Amino acid sequence: MNESMRIADLPDALKPRERLARLGAESLNPAELIAILLRVGTQGINAIEVGKNLLHKYDVSLCQLSRADVNELCRIKGIGKDKAVGLKAAFSLARRMADEMMGEQTVLDTPDKVAAKMMPICMDASTEKLYVIHLNTRARMLGWEEISSGTLDSLLIHPREVYRSAITANAHRVVLVHNHPSGDPTPSEADIRATRDIIRAGRLLRIELTDHVIIGLKSAQHPRGFTSLRELGYFYE
Questions:
Q1: Enclosing H/E stretch for 132
Q2: Structure letter (DSSP) for residue 213
Q3: In principle, which of 161, 162, 177, 196 could form an S-S bond with 131, CB 3.0–4.6 Å?
Q4: Residue 142: phi, psi to the nearest 5?
Q5: Greater model confidence, 51 or 134
Q6: For residues 41 and 79, is the Cβ–Cβ distance under 8 A?
Q7: Helices 30-38, 16-23: inter-axial angle, 10-degree rounding
């Protein structure tokens, strides 16, 4: 496709909106879906090419793209304030839909299930955030709560905050989840120390901390995009 050709100049069979209506959203790639949000764009600019450039800038990662703020997006050719706000709104809707899905009483008995539930929640966070998931005796989710928000690369975790929400929710056990905005889910020494403090506090309260999952991005070193401190052996003394 010629970069100078606008979507409006394409045959109807190739236009993203018409293809979505005829074949469904699954038939479009991410750049084409972004193009629909951007609409036709300014004269001489192909919105699909703008979508490709956006994805390329953020390493073809929708998670990384979702973390960009409006001012950062506005600096990209073909993206004005209105289009940047539209993109942020779309990502926010996706996150809120994930919030609704989290309301279902799902069994979260493996770190993979925990990560699958929480990755959509963490995807657009530009700072570290800590979440506690409340579980019943059968590891069914009762709910979750954000209990702390840190800086770009640090997070304060206190057992008091973790177990206060667990007691209120009448939880039998809890799982901690937090994100690393850098994309590397390797636990820091501070993560390990805080986790062990929370394990010990939970024993006194008879509320088990079953895992601490750190969400990042998928990579060759971390193909799942997350780590489990239990799997890494930090729950055993």
A1: strand 129-135
A2: E
A3: 177
A4: -90, -25
A5: 134
A6: no
A7: 120
What confidence tens digit (pLDDT) does each residue in 122-133 have? Answer: 877 778 899 999
Q: Classify residue 85: in a domain, yes or no.
A: yes
pLDDT tens across 173-217, in order?
999 999 998 899 999 998 999 999 999 999 999 999 999 999 999
pLDDT average, residue stretch 54-68: 78
Q: How many domains does the chain have?
A: 2
Provide the terminal-to-terminal Cα distance of the chain, rounded to the nearest Å. Answer: 60
Q: Residue 60: CB partners within 8 Å, gap ≥ 6?
A: none
Q: Under a CB-based contact definition with an 8 Å cutoff, are residues 4 and 32 in contact?
A: no
Looking at the structure, tell me whether residues 85 and 119 fall in a common domain: no
What 3-state class would DSSP assign to 141?
Answer: strand
Cα 94 → chain centroid: 10
- When computed from its CA atoms, the radius of gyration of the chain, rounded to whole angstroms, is 21
pLDDT given for residue 72 in this prediction: 86
pLDDT tens digits, 99-125 = 666 555 578 999 999 999 898 888 777
DSSP 8-state code for residue 140 = B
Contact in structure between 206 and 193 (CB atoms under 8 Å): no
Considering the domain architecture, whether residues 165 and 58 belong to the same structural domain is answered as no
Tokens of 34: 């972004």
Domain-embedded: residue 71: yes
Q: Is 210 helix (H, G, I), strand (E, B) or coil?
A: strand
The mean per-residue pLDDT over the stretch 213-235 comes to 94
